[in-house]
């Protein structure tokens, strides 16, 4: 079954983790896949897509820079044609500090990648989607958009802002045949998550009703569904993929900090 046969998908942050899993799942379901990442390892994801029998094109670039975004999209368009589906997965969670100790540069960098990046990517592709009368946009938010995340004000705020962007794209473009939905992963077993301190991982798993980490592939399967014709009347939705973690009050931080609260 190839529900995405004939479609062109574009995935950001595709070198590793959830982005790579999304690219491969979209290819398995029939799409040709364009890939964008700052990490040159994105080329390896492109090769993996091609091993699945689909066409691929890739570009390195910073999604927070509109000029680099347009250059990357033009490069991919030149190989594959205009994107039918956009998966805004690129994101960072590198600046972990109490609010009063956050560096201005760290705040601005998270804003640029996590929120301005999806804004730039949508603007680069949505006009051609509207002209065709069909498009799928999936924004990778986070459960932190709703609950906050201890000592990660930049990440939480940008992921919450992404929900607002999702709603506005729906309001402006639904009548053009475009859907825009947000996926909110919980604790997913990516390389970075597995490298977290064991105590934090154990705490997260213990607060998740499923009592395990999710997998990048589980997120990718939902993303691929949202990119299909079958999801045509799902629009402006916020879909949690978290094993039930949202049902628990989540405070992830050092044990010393938690004891002092």
Task: Provide a descriptive summary of the structure in words.
- The chain has one domain: Rossmann fold (3-Layer(aba) Sandwich), CATH 3.40.50.720.
- Helix 4 links the parallel strand 4 and strand 5.
- It has a 7-stranded parallel beta sheet, sandwiched between helices.
- It contains 10 helices and 7 strands.
- The termini are far apart.
- 46% of the residues lie in helices and 15% in strands.
- Helix 1 crosses helix 9.
- By secondary structure, it is α/β, with parallel strands linked by helices.
- 45% of the residues are buried.
- The protein is globular and about 45 Å long.
Quickly give the CATH architecture.
3-Layer(aba) Sandwich
CATH topology grouping: Rossmann fold
Return the average pLDDT rounded to an integer. 94
Q: What distance separates the N and C termini?
A: 52 Å
Helical percentage: 40-55%
Count, helices: 10
Overall geometry = globular
**What is the β-strand count?**
7
Bin the strand percentage. 5-15%
Q: Given this structure, which CATH class is correct? A: Alpha Beta
Rounded Rg: 18 Å
Strand order of the largest sheet: 3-2-1-4-5-6-7
Largest sheet: 7 strands, parallel
Order of helices and strands: EHEHEHEHEHHEHHHEH
Low-confidence stretches: none
Name some characteristics of this structure.
261 residues, alpha/beta, 7 strands, 46% helix, 10 helices, Rossmann fold, single chain
């Amino acid at each position: 079954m190839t529900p995405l046969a004939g479609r062109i998908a574009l995935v950001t942050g595709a070198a590793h983790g959830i982005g790579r899993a999304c690219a491969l799942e979209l290819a398995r379901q029939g799409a040709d896949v364009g890939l964008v990442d700052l990490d040159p390892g994105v080329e390896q994801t492109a090769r993996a897509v091609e091993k699945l029998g689909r066409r691929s094109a890739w570009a390195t670039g910073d999604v927070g820079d509109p000029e680099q975004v347009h250059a990357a999209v033009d490069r991919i368009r030149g190989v594959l044609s205009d994107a039918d589906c956009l998966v805004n997965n690129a994101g960072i969670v590198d600046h972990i500090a109490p609010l009063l100790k956050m560096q201005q540069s760290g705040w601005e960098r998270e804003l640029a990648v996590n929120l301005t990046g999806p804004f730039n990517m949508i603007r680069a592709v949505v006009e051609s989607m509207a002209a065709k009368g069909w498009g799928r946009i999936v924004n990778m938010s986070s459960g932190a958009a709703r609950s906050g995340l201890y000592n990660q004000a930049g990440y939480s705020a940008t992921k919450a802002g992404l929900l607002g962007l999702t709603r506005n794209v729906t309001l402006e473009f639904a009548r053009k045949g475009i859907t825009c939905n947000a996926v909110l992963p919980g604790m997913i077993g990516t390389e970075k998550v597995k490298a977290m301190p064991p105590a934090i991982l154990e705490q997260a798993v213990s607060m998740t009703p499923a009592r395990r980490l999710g997998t990048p592939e589980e997120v990718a399967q939902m993303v691929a569904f949202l990119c299909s014709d079958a999801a045509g009347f799902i629009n402006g939705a916020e879909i949690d993929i978290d094993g039930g973690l949202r049902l628990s009050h989540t405070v992830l931080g050092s044990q010393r900090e938690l004891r002092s609260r």
